[in-house]
Every structure is written in structure tokens, then in C-alpha cells.
Amino acid sequence: MTVSRCHARVPIAFGRPSPVDAVVLARRPELPLLCLRPAVATAEAARFVAAFPGEVLYAVKCNPDEAVLRALAVGGITHFDVASINEVRLVHRLFPAARLHFMHPVKARSAIREAYFDHGVRDFVLDGEAELAKIVAETAAARDLRLIVRLGLAKGGARLDLSGKFGAGVEAAGELLRSSAKCAATVGLTFHVGSQCCDPSAWERALDQAGAVVRAAAVGLDVLDVGGGFPVPYPDVRPPPLDAFLGAIARGVSRMDLPGGCALWCEPGRALVAGCQSLVVQVQARRGDTLYVNDGVYGTLSDAGVLGFRYPCRLIKATGQGVGRMRPFDLYGPTCDTLDHMQGPFVLPDDVAEGDWIEIGQIGAYGSCLGTGFNGFGEVIRVELAKAAGGNSASGRKAA
Ligand SMILES: Cc1ncc(COP(=O)(O)O)c(C=O)c1O
After folding, report:
1. What percent of the chain has pLDDT over 70?
2. Burial degree of 161 (CB within 10 A; 0-12, 13-18, 19+)
3. Nearest of 43, 45, 95 to residue 66 by alpha carbon
């Protein structure tokens, strides 16, 4: 594994002149400004779709913003991993011809019914016999189901561990594959190595486990879904290139000796959208090395709180260019809760002052979708940069 702890270059144009500066200095916003670069999402989707040797399902939970979904569709995304009936409704309304995969292993009965009968969903994930019985009952024992068994993995090295909550063990997954095969048109196997996983060999280990399940089940597999988890750079992490992950997946798949017609899927979220949004916050007070800003862990910056994600940042001075030496700051968000704290460090010029703005990058993944209205905060101004990272014009709207 070649993850270096260094100041990685992030795919956002943080140099000057930036179209964001022009917007900020013209509007002088006192609300957080969420800046979307649709062309970045389009380019990342196109890059991933071109590189991955199978179907790319975008994990909608990561960023369900309609403009983001549209930008991904322009980049070639036609399959969507949806996890709730509201995500099903949203994507079906935007893209009636898209294929939706209901990838939450525990679903409400009404959600299964509506997804199947009203939105044409045929792909359902499951990790237990009870969920299988539920899907069969709520679809009136449909014969055109495509059932995907979620395999549980042991805790790995991903930044966000997804083990424990979902997934059948090796033996149970094999049995579930066999029982699913009796009532489905096609069967598949999936797993998730955890989000922001910088270690390509995690996929190889998971695929070896998947191979053991398939051999024990003696079922002809129609679909192998290697999940999401593909990492992006942050100031303290430079992940290996996408090729390293695709190489590991290719090696793991080749050891599985799958039937020729078996389809390969993946479900990236973060890798497609992290770079397409940045957030501009305003400094409302400075106390030493601590800045009080107008967005925080109950808003767009949830992962900067307890999880301690670091984001690239830069200062936009209210009165011209920042001139001070760079030094680390920590941030407090606007709510009254002490937990609304972001350790960072956020490295900024030391003359940052009340009234200045800070642009925080890489906020497109698990950013605004995790925001709440706690304490009466949560309102942001949304701006779309027409030409993405190099954009020079903007249109905006407020959103609660
Ligand atoms: C089932 C499933 N697929 C895909 C994803 C997307 O993961 P990531 O954003 O790490 O690529 C998640 C994230 O939680 C998930 O739970």
C-alpha cells in the first residue's frame, strides 16, 4: 500500500483568480455558499465509467443534489444505487430510463412494493432469509427479480468502517445465494470494503472471500458487485491511483473463476462527487487560533467533526489579499453545541479576521446531504459555476 501522509494536491483550482472570489466579493455572503462545479462531476463520472470494466452504479446517498445527478448522467452514469424509497422516487423522476438498484439490505415492505410496482425496480439487495421472504411476498412472488446477496466483511483499514451493520457471513451468504436462486431470474453477490479505503488489497481479500462463498454455494453467479469505497485525496492523504484499485479487482476476480456471462458492477459515491463542490464559510469571530464560522458539523461539515476529516482550504480576505504566514486553525460551527467543532487543522494565513471568508474544498461527498436544521441554522446559498474548476460565471439560489 502506498498511501503517503502528505499535503496532497486536490482536484480543485484553489489558485487565483478564482470564479469563487468574484462571487464572494460581489455578494459578500453572510450565509454559507455551496459552490457546484458540474463539469467536475461529469469529468469524474466519465473517467470512472471509461476505466471500470463493468457497470458503474452511482451511490445516490453520497450526494443526491439534482444538479449533481444530472452532471453525472452527462458523464455516462445510467445505473444508480438507491437506498430509500425517496431516492428511488427522485432518480426515477429525473431519469425514467435509468436502472435503479435498491441496495439497502433492510427495506420497508411498502418501499419494496412501490419500488417494484411503480418504479420498475428489479434489483434488490438482501443479507438474510427474512428479507428474501419479504421481497418475494411484497412483489407477489415475481419471477423477474434480480437478487444480490450482501456479504459481510471483517473490519478493515477504510476510513469509514462499514462492517458489522450489514452483510451475511460466508456460510450464511452461500445459503442465501442458493435460496435466492430458487426465486430470482438472476443472482449476484456484493460487499463493501468501507468508505475512503486507500488499500487496494482490501478488494482482493474481499474477492477471495466472495470466491469461497460462490464455491460453497455451487451457484452460477450472474453479478459480482465490488461495492464503493474508492478514495479521493484530502490534505493529509494521497491515495494510490484508480488503476491500482482496478488492478487489484482484476486479480481478485480472476482467482474466482466466474462463469463467462457474469457481470461486474461497482457502486462508487465519494470518488465521483467529492471534488465537484466547495463551501465558502464566513468568519464571525476569531479567538486566538480558533475561528467561529457560519457552517459546521450539523451542516455541510459533518465529517470534519468527530470523524476528523481534513479538507483543503484557502482564505478570501474581505479587504484584499491575505498576506500573513500560514498557520493552523481549528473551527467552531455556528450552533451552541460544543461538539460543533472541527479540529482540522485548517491551514490559513495568520491575518485571517472576522468578516473574511474561507473556501473549503472536496465537500461534494457526504457534505450538504448530511446537514440538519439544528439550532435554526442550515440555510445555504447554492451557486453553480458554469465552467467548473475554471469557470467564470455563476448563477445562484438560496436553499434551506
Ligand atoms: C451499499 C453502499 N454502496 C456504496 C456506497 C458508497 O460508498 P463510497 O462513497 O465510499 O464510494 C455506500 C456508502 O455508504 C454503501 O453503503
Report:
1. 92
2. middle
3. 95
Give the helix, strand, coil percentages of the chain, each rounded to 5. Answer: 35, 25, 45
- State residue 390's pLDDT score: 41
Q: Is the CB of 317 under 6 A from ligand 1?
A: no
Q: What is the CATH number of domain 78-268?
A: 3.20.20.10
Q: How many residues does the chain have?
A: 400
- Atom from ligand 1 closest to the CA of residue 62: 9
- Pairing state between β 357-360 and 313-316: antiparallel
Residue 207 φ/ψ region, left for φ over 0, alpha for ψ in the -120 to 50 degree band, beta for the rest: alpha
Q: How far apart are CA 86 and CA 93, in angstroms?
A: 10
User: In the predicted model, what is the mean pLDDT of the chain?
Assistant: 92
Domain boundaries, the chain: 19-36+274-399, 78-268
Helix, coil or strand: residue 73: helix
Quick: pLDDT tens for 208-261. 999 999 999 999 999 999 999 999 999 999 999 999 999 999 999 999 989 889
* Domain 19-36+274-399 listed as CATH 2.40.37.10: yes
Q: What is the pTM of this model?
A: 0.93
Q: Which residue's CA is the closest to the ligand 1 atom numbered 7?
A: 228
Q: Which atom of ligand 1 is nearest to the CA of 160?
A: 10
Distance 194 CA to ligand 1 centre (A): 7
* pLDDT mean over 60-77: 98
What local confidence, expressed as pLDDT, does residue 327 receive?
A: 95
With cut-offs at 50, 70 and 90, classify the pLDDT of residue 387: low
Give CA–CA dist 193/256, Å, rounded: 18
- H or E stretch including 201? helix 201-217
Instruction: Please give the distance, rounded to the nearest whole angstrom, from the Cα atom of residue 61 to the centre of ligand 1.
Output: 8
Mutate to test the pocket of ligand 1, among 60, 106, 192, 303 (most ligand atoms within 8 A of CB): 192
Q: What b/e readout covers 275-302, taking b as 16+ CB neighbours within 10 angstroms?
A: bbbbbbbbbeeeeeeebbbbbbbbbbbb
What confidence score (pLDDT) does residue 392 get?
36
